[in-house]
Design a protein that fits this description.
Layout: H1 26-41, E1 46-48, E2 58-61, E3 71-82, E4 85-89, E5 97-103, E6 106-112, E7 118-124, H2 125-138, E8 147-153
Antiparallel strand pairs: 1-2, 2-3, 3-6, 4-5, 5-8, 6-7
The structure holds ligand GNR and nickel (II) ion.
Ligand GNR binds next to strand 1 and helix 2.
Length: 162
């Protein structure tokens, strides 16, 4: 259990292509657990390893309301996409900003789990958006370069719910 430092826009690590994972060892399991802790602590719905400075193709996602449905994806690959959605997107590496991005409305992704067992996940709406956003991180891409209208400030006046 550890919270890792989230790298922010301008940090060189965010623009590099991450390396494929060959095997899941203890260090990688620690990384995955730390990524989950870091994502939940930051109230994010996803986190990619390069955001914590590690150039490995590992992503965690949880788009559930309760924050109790963690999804871990190793070496994720988009197999299919369908449709379009245009909506606001944010990134933990770009604090205080949002921008509007067009993404597929459906994606089918192949990945490996912690046991390096292959699985397929399909998502629509926010999950589809998040899968695309996180896989972009693994390829050194930030949503800020894909907005239709640039970035806007968010005024963070939402108090944490008790
Ligand atoms: O927390 C996040 N919210 C979000 C909202 C819309 C589209 C994508 C995201 S991902 C983001 C967390 C993050 O930066 N992941 O890389
Ligand atoms: Ni992000």
């Amino acid at each position: 259990m550890a919270i890792r430092n989230i790298r922010e826009i301008g940090d060189k690590v965010l623009y590099k292509v991450s390396k494929e994972v060959k095997e899941v060892d203890k260090r990688l399991l620690v990384l995955i657990n730390d990524m989950l802790d870091t994502m939940y602590e930051a109230n994010g719905v996803g986190l990619a390893a390069p955001q914590v400075g590690i150039l490995k193709r590992v992503v965690v996602i949880d788009v559930s309301e309760e924050g109790n449905n963690p999804l871990v994806l190793i070496n994720p690959v988009i197999l299919e996409t369908e449709g379009e959605q245009t909506g606001d997107e944010g990134c933990l590496s770009v604090p205080g900003k949002v921008g509007t991005v067009t993404r597929p409305n459906y994606v089918k992704v192949k990945a490996y789990d912690k046991d390096m067992k292959e699985f397929v996940v399909e998502g629509t709406g926010l999950l589809a958006r998040c899968l695309c956003h996180e896989i972009d991180h693994l390829d050194g891409k930030l949503y800020v370069d894909q907005t239709i209208d640039g970035l806007r400030n968010v005024t963070e006046d939402v108090e944490e719910e008790i």
